[in-house]
Amino acid sequence: MTPTLPRVALSPSSLIGVAALALAVLASGCDLVGLDDDPNPNGLSLEEILADPSEARLSNAAVGVETSARTGLGTYLVSVGVIGREYWRVSPSEPRFTTDLLGKSEATLNDNTFYITTPWAARYGTIRNANTLLLGLDANQTLSDAEKAGGRGFARTWIAYQYLLNLNLTFENGLRFIEPGDDAAGPIVGYGESLDRIAALLDQAASDLNGGTFFFPTSLVRDVPAAPVDYGQINRALAARVDAYREDWQGVLDALDDSFVGAAAPLTVGAYHVFSTAAGDIQNPFFFPLDGGGDGVLAHPSFVADIAPGDERIGKVEARTEPRTFDDLTSAFDVDVYETPTSPVPVVRNAELLLLRAEANAQLGNAAAAVADLDVIRTAAGLDPYAGPTDTAALIDEVLRQRRYELYAEGHRWIDARRYGRLGTLPIDRAEDDVFEQFPLPEAETSDPTA
Amino acid sequence: MAASPIRHALVAALLVLPALASAQTVRGTVTNADGGDPVPGVAVSVPATTIGVRTDVDGAYEIELPPGQRRLQFSFVGFRTQDVTVPEGQTVVDVALEEDLLGLDEVVVTGLGTSVKRENSALSVETISARELAEVTTPQTLDGALNGKVTGAVVNSNSGAPGGGINIRLRGITTINGNSQPLYVLDGLILSNDAVSNGVNAVTAAAGGGNASSQDNPANRIADLPPEDIESIEILKGPSAAAIYGARAANGVVVIRTKRGAAGTTEVGFEQTVGVATISRKRGSRAFTAALAEEEFGASGLAAFDANGGQTFDLEEQIYGNEGLLLTSNLSISGGTDRTQFFVSGIVKDDEGIVEGTGYEKQSGRVNLTHRLSRVFEVDAGANYIRSVARRGLTGNDNSGTTFGVGLVSTPSFIDLRPGADGVYPDNPFNSANFLETRDLADIRETNNRFLGNGRLTANVFTSATQSLQLIGIGGVDYYALDQPSVFPVDLQFEEASGLPGTSVLGRTTNLNTNIQALAVHAYAPEGRQLSFTTQLGLTAFDQDYNNVFSVTNGLISDQQNLDQGSSIQTTQTRFFQNDRALFAQEEVNYADAVIVSGGVRIERSSANGDVGRYYAYPKAGLAVNLTNLGLLESDAVDLLKLRVAFGQTGNTAPFGSKFTTFGTATIAGNIGLDLGAQRGFADIEPERATEFEGGVDLTLFNGRVNLEATAYAKSIDNLLLNRQVPFSTGFTVETLNGGQLRNNGVELGLSLIPVSTDLVQWISRTSFWTNRAEVTQLDVPAFQATGGGFGNTLGSIRIEEGKSPTQIVGVDDTDGDGRSDGVFALGDVSPDFQMSFFNDVSIARRLRLTVFGHWKKGGEVINLTELLSDLSRTSADFDEDNDGDGTPDGPQRLGQLGVTARPFVQAASYFKLREVGLYYDVAPSLFGPLSGSLRTLRVGVSANNLFTITPYKSYDPEVSNFGNQAVASGVEVAPFPSSRAFNVHLRLGL
């Protein structure tokens, strides 16, 4: 008997179907089994660059040092400027600008908060980029010795400057130094020794730059508005700053001799981080709209209260339509140093160099030379020449005062007050506020077992 | 159809000879015990053999009973399975099936090509029916519809913004830095559940401050799926169940089955829902007087107060007070013949949000077809096109004062932000944005066009009384093209003030997921023994191709939005390609439905691994012992007592790119530079491995009136993908590595009851309880803040630390009461102590049906920074109150603790939510009047979503996450989009 419902069914048509199914599986066989091992589609990898350090790639790497040196710069200027009572950063959504940084009530600086972690990590990121460039230069076979020397001098100048900025934050809590190619940085090094190592790096870079040529474009050197400034001169300008921090006054003068300092040159001549609205570029991170009610930077009232009559640098702040009160802080002025989203931020400029020279001369007892440079600054600001006492203490007071106004919102006042032991003179805005001396090392450094 | 001679010959040659002996033909009709209608499609089978047929359109069947076999089994989805012993000589067996009210006889997935009756499962598999999912009320998105309904899951809505954004974690914490969301599989198709940021960070700068994680509050793409099309969802919660899905299944698998047609009359269903959404809870705002305004904000505050004549405004009502109209229309047509069944549906949804201009729209069309080509071949195919538009507003954290949320808390109530008679919006003197202006003039939307296609070809190659072989080919494609344009016109307060006014953001993402599976399933039931073997072999391939291009233009020409209409364009592109390949094998042995043993292994490799050639193995095993069927338990009260134990492993592949150390680029002065990324790559990256042991007891009593399912599990995850912070002095900030171990232990209890079952009243009740304890048992790196785990210790952060719960909240604290911070201490935990859900369904006279679904989360804390921001802006409603009675008003008291202790921000976030309530009435056909010819059913109803919430939490909703879906960190709140409640009226027609 034939079952009504056959339990087996393998007709020719179904055999064809089975074959078709099998073929379909086979046809897609490569898909079912194969696997791609692609490189990262989203960018060059570190290994790719080190394996093939062509001139073009190293040129990109060099440019990358200058681009990345701008990362976190806005936070750096906030951190040092707020503690230095140059201004208050106010934000309806970020309380710690006006609590932690000002030491409100019992608040202290935390070791895992953006005001230290962001700039600290960014500076080491630039160091990493510069160290990658150094490794690539070692491995490259096509560049000339002069080109390699120029590249090394460029990289080391940047490395030294990045260390210096982080040391400005952590001061006696120190720094860690990392060599090219190393996976981890060395142990924590104290303030004095760190400064010495930074100075040595700058010296090494200077000798590389001397006779070196650049095979890559650089944007740092700005003829603002005239006088080309080369990298070797920038290197020496930074060395002068480091020597001032080290209180090596003769060193300051020696370094300045090889820098672009000039009493007749515009005060703005120097090296700048530049910004633009071009694709891939960034805008000035310290640019804030004026007269705003949200995120902004209020000038510390003491800037206006303490300014000398007739000082044209009053233009660095702008009166608000209405005073603004935020977190018990009231100011009638906004900071107006960076006027557009593409205003450059100085790395080092002639005005600072003149003031460094004045400071060194004052410390060395060369009062006349000191006053001469101070007067360049004063005159440019529309003030009369200096007429006060010319003893060292008085001249240093004047140097610090001019630095405060001339270098306003460029990241100096807190560090200047600290190196002269004058943090106690910075204004206290609310009864229980504190002026902190230094930032703690980021938790990521201190909790590291290799530290 | 005339059979060819060749075919007869083949049949004769291959047909089993023993069957010729004395096989007996049995026929009959299967009907629904409730009403007596015939039930087509019922599986009629001879237990312990591979013989089986299905009933036809009239519920009729005819089957051969082999010699010695006297039993027949009748089973069909939604009905209790019935076993019938056929008396010798009887040839007609009619059966009336009872409805399976508690889901006792569902089948659950055990392999990629196989499933078993729940009764025989060695695993706890959660099934959510269409009724529970989308028929109580009208959920906006699929993920939202799951909230509270999955025993063992922590489902957390990231905000109340329209269009989804929900974090689902199954059985605790399974990863710290890997993908944390379950794998979604729809009819064999692996779905994309990407969460793509819309890039409004270009305006909010939220990621620029204390936490670089995305805070754009993206929705997951699973939200696209219309819940209305879903027949059932099975949730494979742990590795024991999910091992068949291998290296993508460590977070569990959500297996979705869409609706299919059934043979018989064509059914047309139409449903219209009309509803309204309102804010479910307000925070309130401080009452200002002239004196207070002057005290807090100085002379300018007083001037602003006086400018409006001392008038105050309910700003919260102005921004979050919209009564959003909710409209959903759903038309479905289904039916078919014995050989072809179809299901067609169209859904149109247009929901407004509680902020004017926000909302969620969806249009979806689906066709599902099933066709039996021959006795051998069956094809099943589905196609779904979905278009969704989400307008989610601008909420959450920012560093620019631009979001509605930050704007609201920073603006005191005496400020009037409404436009003047000239239509010009006043500037907000207390923030950089007038949030009413931003709401009305900015356009922030995401439009997704998505196609899902899936097909399954089954070949029943060979069938005999003792053996069958099935070949199954499954293919699927999921493609979406997501557009995320946001336009901030030049006139906005913050745009006017910026250097380059006007911002246009455009994100375009395309993603293609394809997957193919080829399976062979062999069943063997040796004659005369109560044994059956099911063997499964197969291979699967999965490919993903993702491409995201994202551009921001600043300095717009007025009223223009195209990217070329601005002075500055920034573009980024992110691509990734992932290929996964796997082979698997599985064996199940069933002895008399009493002892079921299964084991299997999947080996898998992936292009995301460091070694792309290496296969990783994921084994599994399970044992179920049914004491009732084993005959060890003779009791009238006990229908079923089953003990089960299972083991399984799954993996979690590293996020794409983890193996690379990649250079980013940036330009300066027109030159392009290489800038090494902050993440250090790990060339040898491996998948995480989750291992789970699960055991449980299933007990059914009193003729299926009581069902208890109890499960305990221990799940550990080894070789964790850790994104550890590295010392920044390396030049990197994070690196991914494998190391460490996490453990989860949990208990899940489900009690289903039919307390009342009479002709008049039927009451079904389901109560679930679940709890999970997680611990980081080994951490090869120093303790660190979880990705998205807050904003540092001052404000409280979620810290991964050995020996601690991975969701612990730590923060600075003053332990000795001297008013100074004494360091960082544990202050709470995001994970709840336990959760319970309560589902009750009462129907009266089979016409009136009331369903109530409540969800209780006990314990768990949230870091509430909305309160902090409103304190800082002196606008907290309770700023001047003194709730602790210590003489210091609460606002100043909390502010005084900032930096001393993070305790005020770590707030209890227990809640009870009445999530869904529905009341429906089926109008009697006798009342249809002139429509009675065309109308089959008419149902009217009302429902509510999120009717009320009881919580001690002091903000909008304890369900919140500023950072979206993070592996560990949810529960940080910064001025989110508030949650809403919805009331709906429903009309359902059956034609």
Secondary structure layout:
The complex is a heterodimer of chains A (451) and B (991).
Chain A: H1 12-27, H2 29-33, H3 46-51, H4 55-68, H5 73-83, E1 87-90, H6 114-139, H7 145-170, E2 175-176, E3 188-189, H8 191-209, E4 221-222, H9 231-246, H10 249-257, E5 270-273, E6 296-299, H11 301-305, E7 317-326, E8 329-335, E9 345-349, H12 350-363, H13 367-380, H14 392-406, H15 413-419, H16 443-446
Antiparallel strand pairs in A: 1-6, 2-3, 4-5, 5-9, 7-8
Chain B: H1 5-14, E1 24-32, E2 43-45, E3 52-54, E4 60-65, E5 71-75, E6 82-85, E7 95-97, E8 107-109, E9 115-117, E10 126-129, H2 130-134, H3 142-146, E11 153-157, E12 166-170, E13 183-186, E14 189-190, H4 201-204, E15 230-236, H5 239-242, E16 253-258, E17 264-279, H6 290-307, H7 315-320, E18 324-336, E19 340-352, E20 359-372, E21 377-391, H8 404-410, H9 435-441, E22 443-444, E23 446-463, E24 467-488, H10 493-497, E25 503-524, E26 531-554, E27 568-591, E28 595-606, E29 616-626, E30 638-652, E31 663-668, E32 671-676, E33 679-680, E34 688-701, E35 706-718, E36 721-725, E37 734-738, E38 741-757, E39 761-778, E40 784-790, E41 797-800, E42 808-812, E43 824-829, E44 834-844, E45 848-858, E46 861-864, H11 865-872, H12 890-897, E47 906-908, E48 911-922, E49 937-950, E50 972-973, E51 980-990
Parallel strand pairs in B: 1-7, 13-16, 33-37, 46-50
Antiparallel strand pairs in B: 1-4, 2-3, 2-5, 5-6, 8-9, 10-15, 11-12, 13-14, 15-16, 17-18, 17-51, 18-19, 19-20, 20-21, 21-23, 22-24, 23-24, 24-25, 25-26, 26-27, 27-28, 28-29, 29-30, 30-34, 31-32, 34-35, 35-38, 36-37, 38-39, 39-44, 40-41, 41-42, 42-43, 44-45, 45-48, 46-47, 48-49, 49-51
Helix pairs in contact in B: 8-11
